[in-house]
Specification:
The structure holds two protein chains of two kinds.
Chain A: H1 2-41, H2 59-65, H3 68-99, H4 106-113, H5 115-118, H6 121-131, H7 138-145, H8 162-187, H9 191-199, H10 204-233, H11 236-241, H12 253-262, H13 267-297
Chain B: H1 3-25, E1 28-34, H2 44-53, E2 57-63, H3 70-81, E3 88-91, H4 96-101, H5 109-113, H6 123-128, E4 138-145, E5 147-151, H7 152-158, H8 166-176, H9 193-200, H10 215-229, H11 243-251, E6 257-260, H12 265-272, E7 276-279, E8 291-300, H13 307-317, H14 320-330, E9 333-334, H15 337-341, H16 348-357, E10 361-362, H17 370-386, H18 392-404
Parallel strand pairs in B: 1-2, 1-3, 8-10
Antiparallel strand pairs in B: 3-8, 4-8, 4-9, 5-6, 5-7
Helix pairs in contact in B: 17-18
Chain lengths: 298, 405
């Protein structure tokens, strides 16, 4: 009896033992830091005052809701995510359709398209900063020579152009991700589907609308969800190009949290801002997890 | 030679010096953090010289990314709190208050009392580096003073003299502000508070309670903001221009004046030759002025287990010829009187402009919130004022609120 019960327990424990290494690693690199962030967010934790860390409960969160810069950053974040991900997707889709055609230098073209994705963000930030430069930038030079503008534009120093300018840099960086994902999806669509559609008299647009898009839906949804999470969190390009300025014109939530933590050294408030961003992103993450779970079942 | 054979030989060769040294006398290892603007510069020769003179001490120099100061200090604070900080490090006055509040610094008076090199460093440098609690934690290492660069040729063509007062500055800036050349290459991005300080702190604003919102301070700031918004003598990109932009634009002939220190002098001369010169920054009508004193010191940390060895290393760097050697690759000025006497690294006119600026030099307050002021509060509010999003007075109120709640 006893040995039978013992073996049942062992049997029940076995899967957890196999999972243990993964759980330990996850705990060390994700769960513990997340709990630490939660702890910080409930305290007035200022890095240069390590002996005086009072508990403030939800004080940091309440402060965020009455903080003008928090709301500015939130609105900018929404613009940032919608514009970056939306336009990256459209550009990526177009690029993938082109790269799916057959032409003799297709192999080279597919390789070249990945370059922006492969460059480090800091390099991209610096590169675009100089392209936008008032006096020395190539963009102003081209626009002046072509007669489209008569005086150079300080793209990154104007409140109305700074955010679009940074968004453009990020679109350039991120569209290859969509292009590569969608291209892979396109290649998995059997030719028979197009032949059948053609026999039924479908036009090119109808083929795209009723064959290509439905077949790509899964890939597109996964790519969009992943990219939303990445773009929502990314601050490196903004930090390099404008530092959040001019004024608060390019402040997004992760950037604001970063500046609060690493410039003001207010780790408590920074942690609260980061948690608020995480809460908003959880909606997207939940969608992604549900998708992958469903794909796993299929 | 087979690959494995080569690797084991190479490994043995690398390990050998370490092994013999440990066996010889197990030296005290001093961990020192530093940052140089020029990544190719290395303190290797100085360390070799020091280790030869002090066989019991080994220096482990760690180059830490500067990142406008923020990267460096974030790492430093985090390392100190985590108990893994260096024994000594290069530090600036703007961060002394935070480090004192963290109880991270070791007072140097007992060690300084027995140090022969102390008198070779001028008294005003010692005084300037004292902490607000009256203790001496910082050992001066190098310095720069900000002055006004101006274009000799453009000034001559416009028939104006280098400005001595704010009024003359505005007149000169307007006279040369044409043909795609901005009168003054203003820095509105990170680090630009130095430009603002010359005119607003020089014009009467102070960091004492109420000092940013006094009538005099508000008027000085309005005058400064209007240089951009009304007189348009700043380039359009001024709100976000940083160090690289102001220097490169100046070198490209896009600005007739800018404010920086001797660290950029050789680069300027290389691009513009005799067409660039420098004078002390202009002063207010009442003769008062302000220019940023760019300090750099070394400090020993309280948590170090090898404080005496650490002090030996940092005092070595601030001694006569060593200090001169150190400053030749940082491009700043030596702190020793003997070193300054025979300084040849920069053209004389820039050294003179630095020296002549000393009477009005100042530093930002020794306050825990100073670092955040320079990194976010000042640029954000300056940019909004320059873009007309807020009134100049609102900018000063925000700065007052940052320091005094």
């Amino acid at each position: 009896m006893a040995s039978a019960a013992g073996s049942r327990i062992r049997e029940a424990l076995r899967p957890y033992l196999f999972l243990a290494p993964a759980i330990v690693v996850t705990a060390a690199v994700i769960i513990v830091p997340a709990l630490q962030t939660l702890w910080m967010s409930l305290h007035d934790y200022v890095l240069f005052r390590p002996d005086d860390v009072p508990f403030v409960g939800l004080g940091n969160f309440i402060r965020a809701f009455s903080d003008e810069i928090f709301w500015v950053s939130l609105v900018n974040s929404v613009i940032w995510i919608v514009a970056c991900v939306g336009l990256q997707f459209l550009l990526g889709l177009g690029t993938a359709m082109l790269l799916n055609q057959s032409f003799w230098w297709r192999g080279v073209a597919r390789m070249l398209v990945v370059i922006p994705w492969a460059l480090p963000s800091v390099i991209i930030g610096l590169m675009w900063t100089w392209m936008y430069d008032l006096n020395l930038g190539v963009l102003n030079d081209m626009l002046l020579r072509s007669g489209l503008i008569t005086t150079p534009v300080a793209w990154l120093a104007r409140a109305d152009t700074a955010l679009p300018a940074v968004v453009l840099a990020l679109i350039w960086q991120g569209f290859p991700f969509f292009a590569v994902m969608i291209l892979a999806g396109l290649q998995s669509i059997p030719d028979e589907h197009y032949e059948a559609a053609e026999i039924d008299g479908a036009t090119r647009w109808q083929q795209f609308r009723f064959v290509t898009l439905p077949a790509l839906a899964g890939v597109i949804a996964t790519a969009l969800l992943l990219r939303i999470i990445w773009v929502a969190n990314s601050l490196d390009v903004i930090l390099v190009m404008t530092g959040g300025g001019p004024g608060f014109a390019t402040h997004t939530l992760p950037l604001y949290a970063f500046l609060k933590a690493y410039s003001a050294m207010e780790f408590g408030y920074g942690a609260a801002l980061a948690l608020l961003l995480s809460a908003l992103l959880l909606v997207v993450v939940a969608g992604y997890v549900r998708r992958t779970a469903r794909e796993g079942l299929q | 030679m087979k690959r494995r054979q080569f690797l084991s030989l190479a490994g043995a060769a690398l390990a050998a010096p370490a092994v013999t040294r440990v066996n010889a006398q197990s030296p005290a290892t001093v961990r020192w953090w530093y940052h140089f603007d020029n990544p190719q510069a290395t303190p290797g020769d100085l360390i070799a010289k020091f280790e030869k003179e002090n066989p019991g001490i080994k220096v482990q120099a760690e180059s830490i990314p500067w990142g406008g100061g923020n990267d460096y200090y974030t790492r430093l604070y985090a390392a100190l709190i985590a108990g893994n900080g260096p024994d000594c490090a290069m530090v600036k006055l703007g961060n002394q208050a935070r480090l004192v509040q963290m109880k991270a610094l070791e007072p140097l008076e007992p060690m300084l009392a027995n140090w022969a090199g102390k008198s070779d460093i001028a008294d005003n440098l010692w005084a300037m580096n004292k902490a607000s609690d009256g203790r001496q934690y910082y050992l001066p290492l190098q310095y720069v003073v900000l002055y006004l660069y101006y274009r000799v040729d453009l000034f001559a063509a416009a028939g104006v003299q280098p400005p001595k007062t704010f009024d003359e500055f505005l007149k000169a800036a307007q006279a040369v502000n044409k043909d795609g050349v901005a009168g003054f290459g203003m820095r509105g991005g990170g680090g630009g508070h130095d430009h603002w300080g010359t005119f607003v702190l020089g014009g009467g604003a102070t960091f004492d309670k109420g000092g940013m919102v006094s009538p005099k301070a508000l008027a000085a700031n309005r005058w400064f903001v209007e240089l951009g918004t009304k007189h348009k003598v700043f380039p359009a990109s001024a709100p976000t221009d940083g160090f690289r932009q102001i220097i490169d634009n100046y070198k490209a002939g896009r600005a007739a004046m800018t404010i920086h220190h001797i660290g950029s002098a050789n680069e300027m001369v290389q691009a513009l030759g005799d067409k660039v010169s420098a004078v002390p920054v202009p002063r207010a009508a009442d003769g008062k002025g302000w220019t940023s004193f760019g300090d750099e010191s070394n400090a020993v940390f309280a948590a170090s287990k090898v404080k005496d060895a650490a002090f030996k290393w940092i005092s070595f760097l601030s001694t006569g010829a060593n200090n001169v050697a150190f400053n030749t690759f940082t491009g700043q000025l030596p702190v020793t009187t003997s070193g300054a006497a025979n300084w040849t690294l920069h053209p004389k006119r820039f050294v003179d402009a630095s020296m002549q600026s000393l009477p009005v030099m100042g530093v930002l307050p020794d306050h825990p919130k100073t670092a955040d002021f320079t990194r976010t509060v000042w640029p954000q509010n300056m940019q909004r004022a320059l873009l007309g999003q807020i009134e100049p007075d609102a900018m000063m109120k925000a700065i007052e609120a940052h320091f005094h709640g």
